[in-house]
Every structure is written in structure tokens, then in C-alpha cells.
Amino acid sequence: xxxxxxxxxxxxxxxxxxxxxxxxxxxxxxxxxxxxxxxxxxxxxxxxxxxxxxxxxxxxxxxxxxxxxxxxxxxxxxxxxxxxxxxxxxxxxxxxxxxxxxxxxxxxxxxxxxxxxxxxxxxxxxxxxxxxxxxxxxxxxxxxxxxxxxxxxxxxxxxxxxxxxxxxxxxxxxxxxxxxxxxxxxxxxxxxxxxxxxxxxxxxxxxxxxxxxxxxxxxxxxxxxxxxxxxxxxxxxxxxxxxxxxxxxxxxxxxxxxxxxxxxxxxxxxxxxxxxxxxxxxxxxxxxxxxxxxxxxxxxxxxxxxxxxxxxxxxxxxxxxxxxxxxxxxxxxxxxxxxxxxxxxxxxxxxxxxxxxxxxxxxxxxxxxxxxxxxxxxxxxxxxxxxxxxxxxxxxxxxxxxxxxxxxxxxxxxxxxxxxxxxxxxxxxxxxxxxxxxxxxxxxxxxxxxxxxxxxxxxxxxxxxxxxxxxxxxxxxxxxxxxxxxxxxxxxxxxxxxxxxxxxxxxxxxxxxxxxxxxxxxxxxxxxxxxxxxxxxxxxxxxxxxxxxxxxxxxxxxxxxxxxxxxxxxxxxxxxxxxxxxxxxxxxxxxxxxxxxxxxxxxxxxxxxxxxxxxxxxxxx
Length: 621
What we know:
Structural class: mainly beta
Oligomer: single chain
Number of helices: 3
Helix content: under 10%
Radius of gyration: 48 Å
Strand content: over 45%
Largest sheet: 46 strands, antiparallel
């Protein structure tokens, strides 16, 4: 009876560890309780199924010793706070005033699904902050975090790991000097140099985070990514495993096999294989080099979009434009200040808009405000050609031995104009292929070389080393050579072949319905007379642009007219038209000067002044 009453009193009224209620430990149960005197202090010894509490904190153990504000518990020690927080250990030292506990051997702190394992743990019951100094392991879902020292704030659900930090997840291992981990968000926060290793890559950074739940990561502080085939670095890296988004922000660099990308920002998606380079972008693969303020590239389809002074270096082709869009179909569009250059042939096309196809080097150039033009540099000289529309592309021919030859084709439409230091030409349209380096001008073509004008239904210009080597005037060929005002040497025929050496006339053959009017000069270059000839064929030989030999074939009819009897206006061949006003004299002429040439009929030839004037008026319109 006395023992029973003693136990009741213990349960309801024993107060230890001070006089304030908040500092009291209440003993709920013990199989055996003994009170001993230790000087002025009382020592209570509890054994067997010991259960105690202080405020809302419950403690359990096999045995306990209470003296003043101190509690020592041994055997199956348990501290319980709320429904989710429990701390286990073999022994415990606790102060009820400071509410600091020290747990030893086989210590486990449980907080919901998270378990912290260590051999010694300091735990503040009041603040619910745990710390350890000799290795601990935190198991959070499928992730294991270990360090030599650390602090775990249970209220904040934040663990701080220090010294020899190791994190193991199903997909990677992490090592760092220090690390924070949010057990509620399942988020690792990097606060020191950190290295992450997976089966496929290594990542280094100095700060950032990894969200285990959302599978997102931010790497900062000189972050670096490296795998057997890939290397990347930037000021900051962001990665979302679920969406496949990789963002390299600030001084971004990405290299993969034969691909290299640089920009202020690089946005890449692993699933779509698409890349976006923002700010001074640079992209290189085995086929081409791309530069632009903003670049979008689709690795699956090859689609390419460039904004802001874009540049593509593709083999021998160099493409520049304010906006470049390369489509999945294989075609691309170029807009704004377009420059397309073939570095191998030193040929460039300038325009406002172009359509481009990479596989056959196809380009169609147009402009709205001005006209597209082509520039070709050869032997130190430059030839310019402009038209309303320019086309250039490659075709491929296979010979009997299976060898494939590449043939470059050029087409120009509507008001074609050429300008070169020693060659000028106009026509309605033009065709060129580099097999024989022949420019063919169609519909009222005119060609000028020095003071000589060539015209015909069609004119072929054979180029060699950038210079005119031969001119073939097909059908109704007419050559006019100005000697002085109103006086012209004239040659007419069905087909005329003119050969040049070092940009000067060398020889000429006129076949079919050949006619010529040639002014004879004496030794002081004074007019002697005019020789007119009609025959089937004529051969001319020149030296320094002067005729040194003429041969007439098949019953020539010649007539020598003394100069006193010559009327230079009347003495003109049918369809005579001196089109000097249409001759381009500069690059500006071929870009802006529009001239509609309407050849006059032979009976109108006498009034050349009015003809030229009316033609000029049309050009002004």
C-alpha cells in the first residue's frame, strides 16, 4: 500500500530540475524508482520502462539517473516530438534548462521519411536543431547524404553538411566540402566547390542547387560539364531533366564531337535536339560555321534560324544577312543586307532578300529598294553584274568512268548589266556556266570594249582568267567602232567571232552576209576614204586595236569612197544604233540606272541625235 501511494505521488507531483514549470521533467512511469542523497543534491534512479516528458517532448529509456537539471538515460533511448520527429540512441545526456541533449551510439533521428544516422548527436529539444562531429548519414527517400560534420535544423527541414560531403543518388554521386539539403523540398544546395559524377558525365561548380523531386539543377560559380563526347561551361548552368532543357547563361561554351557553340546564352533541349544561341552566337559543325546575334538550330532536321547580322561559313560559301532562316525542306531564306560569297571563285552576291539551298549551293537573289548584284574578283580586277533577279546553283554530271563533275550555273533576269574596267555589257537576261566560262546575253544585248560596241540577237562572252577572251555574236551581229564624232567603223554579219589577247582586239571572223564599212587613215591618222565591202566571210587582224590585215572571201564586192564624198551619217549599215548612253560607267549605274533600249529601224538611222535623246527620256522615266 505504501509503495502504491509512493508511485502515485511520483506520477503526479515529483518535480525535478528547477522550480519553473518549463524546466520540469515529469516522470510518467518507471518500474522501479529509488531516491538517493548525494550531498545536498538528490539523485533519482529510474529503472524499467522509463517514460518521461517535458512540455510536449517525450523521452523513453530502460533506465535513467536524474540529478538537478541533468538527466542521464541508458538503453533504448527515445525522444519523441510531434508525430514525425523521433530520436533514438543507446544513451542520453540531457539538460532540462538548456534543453540540449547528447545521444551516443547507434543514434538515429527520424523526421518523416528522412533518417539521420550517426554515433554521436547533439540535439537541442527546444530549437530542434541537431549537430554531429563524427560522420553521419542522412537517408532521404532514394538519396543518401554523408559528411564528417553537420547540422540538421528539423524545424526548417534544412541539413548542413561539412567536410568530406558525399551524396549518392540512383543517377549520380556528389562530393563537396559543404552542402545544404532541404528535406522537405528534397533539394541539395551547393555552397562550396562541388563535383557530381554520373555514368555519362562529370559536373563541377561552386554553388547552385539540385532538386531531387523536380529533377532540376542550377550550377554556378565557374560551372563545368564534361563527358566523353561533350564539354560545356558558362557563368551559370540550368538543367531540367524532365523537360530536357539545358541553359548555359553567361559566356556560354558547348562542345560535342565535331560541334562547337559559343554565345552569351545557349539554350539546348535534349529531347528535341534544338539549340538557341543568344548574344554574339557562334556555332560550328563539320560542315559549316554560323555566327549571329541569335541562332536557332535543330539538330534533327537541320533547320537553322539566325537573327541580327548572321554569318554562315559553309565550305567555300560565306553567307551574311540580318536574318537567316534555314528550313527543314533544305531551303533557307536570307533577309536584310545579304552577302553570299563563294571564296573559292572570289564571287559575291549582294541583295536584300535571297532563297538559299545548301546541297546544290542554290541562291535566288532579289531586292526591293535597289537591285541585287554579283561581284567577281579575278587577276586583281573586279567584274560587277546586276539584274532584277539573280540565280546561282550547282549541277552534277557523271562521266563514263563514274567521275562526278560539279558545274556552276548562273542565271540573271530583267535588265542585266555588267561593269568591268575594260568590259561593259547589258541585256535582258543572262546565262553562265563555269564549264567553259561563257556568259550568254539574250534579247538586245550590247557589249562595249573601249570604244567598240557589239550587238546581236545573242552574245556569248568567253572569259579566261577574269578577262574577255572571245565574243561570239549570234545572228544579226553588228560591231561599231567610234573613230571620232559621227565616224564609225562598222561590221555586220550573221555570226561574228571576236578574239582578244590581253584585253585588246586580236582577230575577228565574220560569217554569213558579211558587210563592213572601214575608214582608211594615212600615216598621220587623217581620213583617206571609206571602204565598203559585201561578201560571205571576212577576216580581220588587229594590232593595238588597229586593223593590220583584212581578208574577204567568196566574191567580195568592195568600193572605195574618197573622204571628200563620204557622208558619215548616210554611210551607216542597216540597224545602226550607237547605244553609248546605255553603257554603264560605274557600279552605281548598274544598280540604279534603268534604260529601256529600243533599236531603231535602218531608215531611222539618219537622225541619231533624236533617237538617243528619246531613249534617254525613256530611261529617265
